Amino acid sequence: MSNIETQAPEDVRGIDRRVFMGLFGGGLGGAALVGAAAATAWPAEVSASAATPTEAAAPSGEARADHGGGHEGLSVDEMDDMHKQVVDQFLENIERPITRGVGATDLEYRMEDGVRVFELTVMRAEWEVTPGQVEEAITYNGIVPGPTIRCVEGEPVRIHVKNDLDQSTSVHWHGQRVPNSQDGMPFLTQPPIKPGETFTYEFVPGPFGSHMYHSHHNATEQVTKGLLGALLVEPRDRGAEPAYDKDELYILNDVIGGFTVNGKGFPATPAYLAREGERVRFRFMNEGLMVHPIHLHGLTFEVFARDGYPLPQPFLCDTITVAPGERWDAIVVADNPGAWAFHCHILSHAESAQGMFGMVSVFIVE
Ligand SMILES: [Cu+2]
User: How far is the CA of 33 from the centre of ligand 1 (A)?
Assistant: First the structure.
């Protein structure tokens, strides 16, 4: 018996939706639920402090939010309404997607003589990052991040990569100790995959852990526009990693569509949901061009691996800095009920005068 949850994302989502309904007084529908959730999500002290000195001095809506500039003469209430709207949209997104397309879904495979065989097609596609913000992306199989490849340490894989792009490309298996010919470096280890061509990679996965795959040709454009994905290698011995109930990805990018988590910007970013007491594994990966310190409110990271390699001594923290190319694995024990902000702490990647945006999510503990 393994305690590692291997349900399809849709199933997990189904359970989580019920958890969410329960947390925020289920049975309410549509807008009422969103309203109730927004009201319930905030602790009592928010309403207790509603009558601030500023508001006491000026009638509601007439106080000007003109400290710090950039507010274009918005009233306090106008500014707060903008902030509330995006949070409401985020909560609505838990019920039903507010953007088209879901990135990083598991890639299906078939077995051929003991080899796991995967298919990737490199193609341009439109990608909706936030509601109405549609970007020209370069994708694996039409989604950003590309589909997640799951395999097992020591069990061979074969990956056919078809190039339907108008440029050459290649795939690098970031973090894997592959034979040199499979490393995906054009002119160093292989010819580039020209438009219309298919290249087949074969290797035996290892080391285990959280890894990535991405283009290594014209990479500044190709990777940042979407040619990236997670490559998750399960250890042969499950005891080599700590036990967990849920397995979550937190993939950072900072070019296409701005600051994103799993291909989406707030309020379209995924919410992370858990029941009290569950152990949630987060796999942080940075496929962008900047460093991002990811901070979780109210809960604690137990960081246990870097770049897939188990740490000699796990450590506790609440902010984990993820540099380009790095992967960090952490367990969060969902031991503090509530809706906890979970965001990049370079504040210009997360919050503006118009409200939260970009690298922001929420971890909801029932
Ligand atoms: Cu950041």
Answer: 31
Q: Look-up: residue for tokens 């359970």?
A: 15
Structure tokens at 246: 């849920």
Rounded distance from Cα 345 to ligand 1 centre (Å) = 6
At the second CATH level, the architecture of 241-365 is Sandwich (2.60)
pLDDT 10s digits, 224-253: 999 999 999 999 999 999 999 999 999 999
Residue 349, classed as helix, strand or coil, is helix
- CA of 97: how far to CAs of 129, 132, 178, 352, in Å? 12, 13, 38, 23
| CATH 2.60.40.420 residue window(s) in the chain | 110-239, 241-365
- Tell me the backbone φ, ψ of residue 250, rounded to 5 degrees: -135, 85
Question: The pTM is what?
Answer: 0.82
Rounded distance from Cα 290 to ligand 1 centre (Å): 7
Q: What is the pLDDT of residues 145-198, one digit of tens each?
A: 999 999 999 999 999 999 999 999 999 999 999 999 999 999 999 999 999 999
In CATH, 110-239 is 3.20.20.140: no
Query: Separation of 226 CA from ligand 1 center, angstroms?
Result: 18
Please write down the long-range contacts of 212-215, taking CB distance under 8 Å and 24 or more positions apart.
Answer: 212/174, 212/175, 212/285, 212/287, 212/327, 213/146, 213/149, 213/171, 213/172, 213/173, 213/174, 214/171, 214/172, 214/174, 214/287, 215/122, 215/138, 215/169, 215/170, 215/171, 215/172
